[in-house]
Design brief:
Elements lengths: L2 H13 L4 H13 L11 H9 L14 E6 L5 H14 L8 E6 L11 E4 L2 E4 L2 E4 L1 E5 L8 E5 L1 E6 L1 H10 L5 H8 L5 E8 L2 E10 L7 H12 L25 H10 L10 H21 L2
Parallel strand pairs: 1-2, 1-8, 8-10
Antiparallel strand pairs: 3-6, 4-5, 6-7, 9-10
Helix pairs in contact: 1-2, 2-9, 3-9, 8-9
Length: 294
C-alpha cells in the first residue's frame, strides 16, 4: 500500500464514522479508482467536502426540476447539451430532472444588450412547478417587438462582450467574472443563487470568441457544478472539478458524487461531511457487490 493511500485511509479514520474493517475495504476501493496516487492532492474525503461545501459549509441542491435555457449567437451545441441532460437524468435517479430545454438564438435580437435587457427572478408557478423562474426580457425598438425567455439554468454561448453584459445583468459579478472579462485563461465560469440552500438559479458563461475555449469540457464541468458540485478541488486526479483543464475519460466518480448529493436522506442545508460519508459508503457497497459476484 503506497504512502498516499495510507494517508487517505488515515484521513477516513479521523473524519468519518467507518470502523477499521470498513476502512480496509475502502482502501481496496480507492486503489481501484483513477489516479489516487498523486502525492500533492488532498485525501478523497477532503476533496468531496471541498467540492460540495458552500461558504457556510452546507450542501446546496435543486428541489424541483430546473428548466435549462441556452442563449447562443452561433452553434447552440444542441446535441451535446441534450445528451448531457439525458445522461444526468439517467445516471442520477433521485435528481428531480431537467424540466425542459430551450434554445434561444440571440441574433434575432438586433439591438445592443446593455440598456435593453432585463433579468428578473420572481417566484412563479411555471408549468405546475413551484420555484424561482428567471425571466429574461429583450426590449424591441417598437411595441410588439419585445422578446422574452424563461429558465432556471441559463447557458450563455456568446462572445466575450455579450458574456460580460449577461454577467452584470444576472448579478454574476465576482472574482471569476473579472478574470473572464480580462480575457485570459478563464474562458468559462458559472454562478448559482440559492435560498435556504435550495438552488434557485444558475448561470454558465462560455467565451465563444476564443478559438482555444474547450467548449465541450466547459459545458460539462460548469453544468455539473450548477447542479450542486459547487467548487473545484485543486489537482484532483479523481474528479473533473480540479481546475486543471485535463479531460477525464472516466467521469464515473463525478456521477457517484452527484448521486450522493441527491441521495435519500440528504437535504439542502446538510453539512458537506454528511454527503461525503454517503459517497464513501457507496464505494464500500460497490466493492462488496463486485466481490460477491460469482
Amino acid at each position: 500500500m503506497g504512502h498516499t493511500l495510507r494517508r487517505l485511509i488515515a484521513n477516513f479514520t479521523e473524519d468519518s464514522p467507518f470502523n477499521s474493517s470498513q476502512i480496509t475495504i475502502l482502501s481496496l476501493v480507492f486503489a481501484g479508482l483513477p489516479g489516487v496516487a498523486a502525492a500533492q492532492e488532498k485525501p478523497v474525503y477532503d476533496q468531496v467536502v471541498e467540492i460540495l461545501a458552500s461558504d457556510r459549509g452546507t450542501v446546496r441542491r435543486w428541489a424541483y426540476p430546473p428548466k435549462l435555457t441556452v442563449i447562443h449567437t452561433g452553434d447552440p451545441h444542441q446535441d451535446q447539451i441534450n445528451g448531457m441532460v439525458d445522461l444526468v437524468n439517467a445516471q442520477v435517479p433521485n435528481f428531480p430532472g431537467i424540466g425542459a430545454v430551450e434554445f434561444f438564438d440571440l441574433t434575432q435580437f438586433n439591438r445592443r444588450l446593455a440598456g435593453n435587457t432585463q433579468f428578473r427572478m420572481p417566484v412563479v408557478d411555471f408549468d405546475g412547478i413551484e420555484g424561482s423562474i428567471v425571466r429574461a426580457l429583450f426590449a424591441g425598438e417598437e411595441e410588439g417587438q419585445d422578446l422574452s425567455v424563461t429558465g432556471s439554468i441559463f447557458i450563455f454561448l456568446t462572445g466575450l462582450e455579450d458574456g460580460i453584459t449577461f454577467g452584470a445583468l444576472t448579478q454574476s459579478t465576482k472574482r471569476l467574472s473579472r478574470q473572464f472579462a480580462e480575457g485570459g485563461d478563464m474562458r468559462c465560469y458559472f454562478n448559482v443563487m440559492s435560498k435556504n440552500d435550495e438552488l434557485r438559479a444558475g448561470f454558465i458563461f462560455i467565451n465563444m470568441d476564443d478559438a482555444l475555449t474547450p467548449v465541450a469540457e466547459c459545458l460539462y464541468e460548469e453544468f455539473m457544478q450548477t447542479l450542486g458540485l459547487l467548487n473545484d478541488s485543486q489537482d484532483s486526479s479523481m474528479f473533473t472539478f480540479d481546475n486543471t483543464g485535463i479531460v477525464r475519460e472516466n467521469r464515473e466518480p463525478d456521477f457517484q458524487l452527484l448521486r450522493a448529493l441527491y441521495s435519500q436522506g440528504v437535504t439542502p442545508g446538510d453539512k458537506a461531511q454528511k454527503v461525503a460519508d454517503v459517497f464513501v459508503a457507496m464505494q464500500q457497497t460497490r466493492l462488496i457487490g463486485t466481490v460477491a459476484q460469482p
